[in-house]
Amino acid sequence: MTGSGRVRRLAPALGTFAAILAVWQIMVEWRDTPRWLLPSPLDIGRAMAESADLLWSHAGITLLEMALGFTIALLLGVTVAVASHLSDPIRRTVYPLLVTSQSVPVIVLAPLLVIWFGFGITPKVALVVLVCFFPICVSFLDGLRAADNEILLLLRAMGANRWQMFRIGRLPAALPALASGSKIAATYAVIGALIAEWLGASQGLGVFLIRSQNSFRTDRAMAVIVIVSVIAVAAYLTIEIIARLSMPWSYREDEGEL
Amino acid sequence: MSAVGPADGVETVAVTDMAKTFGRGDRALPTLASVSVTAAAGEFVTVVGNSGCGKSTLFNMVAGLELPDAGEVRLHGKLSLGVTGRVGYMPQRDLLLPWRRLLDNVTLGIEIAGGDLREARRRATELLPDFGLEGFAESYPHQLSGGMRQRAALLRTILTGHDVLLLDEPFGALDALTRLEMQQWLLDIWERFGKTILFISHDVDEAILLSDRVYVMSPRPATMVAEIAIELERPRRLAMTASGVFEEYKRTLLEHLGVIASERALDGAADSG
To answer: pLDDT of B140-174, one tens digit each?
Structure first.
C-alpha cells in the first residue's frame, strides 16, 4: 500500500473530524459559552500546552500500569489458553468461569482491589490484567481450536508427533486470532487503568482528570480525554504493526484497515 | 508393463481384502466391503470411482491414518497398519502452510522426520526449476497460482524421500487447461524420479492417460469391480486421447463405472415407452 493511497483512504474520516472541530469552535465563540461548561478545541489545545509537564508525568504512570498489566495478561492469557486447549478437564473448568466472570462490572471490582492491594500501583495493574485477560485468552483459545484439520492430518501422515502437530500446524494458525484479541485488550487497558486511578491514587491520568473536574478546569479534563484516546489508538497501532511485521502472510496486499 | 506382479513376488504396495465400516448400530456406514490393490515398483496405478465411494478412506489406511476392520496393508512386503510416515501423501487440497515461505513448506517432511534441514533446503532449491517454481523460494503460498501450489505440494511429497506416493485427486480443483499441463508434467516427474504412484481420480481420461493399470471401485460399500491394464506406449502424449484404443479403454471403464450401462437402460426405457 502506498503512502498517498493511505492518505486518500483516510481523507473522509480526517475531513469529517476537522469539520466537527471547526463547527465546535465557531459555536462556542458565537454563543460565548463559559469555558468551564464547554471549552473550545483551541482552549483544550492551550490547556494541553500549558499543563504539558503535568500531563506527561501522569501519562507516564498510566502507561506503566497499562504496559505491566497488558504484559501479565498476555502471559497469563496465552498460558491458560494453551492449557485449556491441551486438557479437556481444564477447559471445562476454566471456560465457564471465564465467561461468567465477564458479567461482573469492572467498576465494582476496583474499590475491592484498593481494599486488598492499597493505593499503590498494584491494584491498577491488577485491574488492567482483569480487563485484558479475557479477550486475549478467549481469542487465542478459539484460534487454537480453529486450526485446519486437514493440515493436521497431513502432518500426522508425515509422521508428526503431538508436539510437532501443535507447534507446526496449530500454533501459527492461532496467532492472527491472538493479535486480534490483543488489539482489543490494548484499547481496554487504558480504560482499566483510568478507572482504577479514579478510585484511589495519587498519580496517573485518572487522578489528574478527577482533580481537573473538581476544580472546574473542564479544558484540562478534556485535554486528558484527548491524551487517553491518543494512547488507546497508539496501543492498538503498536499491536497492529507488530502483527504485520511478524505475520506478513496474514496481511494480503489488498486487505487491512488504517 | 502388465498386471502381473514382479518376479520376486513382493509388491511395493499390497492392500488385501480391506474392509472398513464407520460408526455403529443404526448409524453404521459400511464404506469398504473388500478392497484389494497392488502396485509394483515404479508403477503408476489409478483408482477411479464415483465421489463418496471410499477412495480417500482407502488412501488413509495406506497412509496409516486409519485402521481397517479387516484386511492388511503391506509396503515392500512388510505389514504396515496404523504406521504413519512411510509413504508420501498428497491430498486434494495443496495444504501448504500459509505462514511458511515456499522453501520451508516443501522441506516440511524432512523437518518432521528430523532429517538434515540444510541439505533438504539445498536439494529443494535445486529442484525448484523442474517444478516451475524458480524464483519463488521466498514466496508465501497465497502469492502463488493454483498450479504452482499443486506443484509445490508434489515437491513437498517427493522430498519426503518415500518411494511410494499417494496422490488423492491432486488436480481436481484446477481448471481444465492447467489440469492437462499438470498431467503431462506429472508424467515427466514420475519417469524422472522412478516413484511408485497410487493415484485417485474420478476423471476417466486422466486415469487412462497417466496409468499403467486402472482399478474401478464400486459405490459404497466398495469393492473393486475391474482391474484394467492400460497398454498404451510411453511416453504418453495428449494426442493419444483421440485414438481408437483410448476410446475403447474409456468405454470399458465407463461401463464398469455403470455410466454407459445406465445410458443403455435409459434408451431401452425410452424405446419401450
So the answer is: 999 999 889 999 999 999 999 899 999 999 988 88
Are B215 and B226 contacting, i.e. CB atoms less than 8 angstroms apart? yes
| Binary contact (A175, B109; C-beta < 8 A) | no
Across the interface, which of A156, A160, A247 has its CB nearest the CB of B99? A247
Assigned C-alpha cell, B71: 484386511
Q: Which of B96, B94, B95, B66 is nearest to B80 (CA)?
A: B66
Name every chain B residue with its beta carbon within 8 A of the beta carbon of A151.
95, 97
- Directed axis angle between helix A106-117 and helix A122-145, to 10°? 130
CB contact under 8 Å between B108 and A169, yes or no, is no
Q: How far is the C-alpha of B227 from the C-alpha of B225, rounded, in Å? A: 7
- Phi, psi of B228, rounded to the nearest 5 degrees: -125, 125
The per-residue pLDDT for range B223-244, each reduced to its tens digit, is: 999 999 999 998 898 889 889 9
Q: Is residue A213 part of a domain?
A: yes
Count of the separate structural domains present in chain A: 1
Go through the domains of chain B in sequence order and give each one's CATH number.
Answer: 1-87+163-238 (3.40.50.300), 96-161 (no CATH)
Query: Cα(B230)–Cα(B212) distance, rounded to whole angstroms?
Result: 5
Residue B176 predicted with pLDDT over 70:
yes
Owning domain of residue A115 = 3-9+42-250
Contact criterion met (CB < 8 Å) for A168 and B65: no
Other beta carbons less than 10 A from residue A230's beta carbon: 12
Q: Which candidate in A149, A151, A152, A154 is best for mutational testing of the B interface (most B CBs within 10 A)?
A: A154
pLDDT value of position A258: 45
Contact B97 A157 (CB under 8 A): no
* Interface check B140 vs A, CB under 8 A: yes
Q: Which residues of B touch A250 (CB under 8 A)?
A: 98-99
Q: What is the pLDDT along chain A (258 residues), one digit of tens a residue?
A: 556 777 888 899 999 999 999 999 999 999 998 888 999 999 999 999 999 999 999 999 999 999 999 999 999 999 999 999 999 999 999 888 888 888 888 888 888 888 898 888 999 999 999 999 999 999 999 999 999 999 999 999 999 999 999 999 999 999 999 999 999 999 999 999 999 998 878 899 999 999 999 999 999 999 999 999 999 999 999 999 999 999 988 887 544 444
Question: How distant, in Å, are the alpha carbons of A143, A146, A175, B256 from that of A139?
Answer: 6, 10, 9, 51
Q: Which of A150, A158, A247 sits opposite B112 (nearest CB)?
A: A158
Whether A17 contacts A229, CB under 8 Å: no
Contacts of B154 in chain A (CB under 8 A): none
Q: Alpha-carbon Rg of chain A, whole angstroms?
A: 22
pLDDT in tens, A169-197: 999 999 999 999 999 999 999 999 999 99
CATH of the domain at A46: 1.10.3720.10
* CB-CB neighbors (< 8 A) of A179 in chain B: none
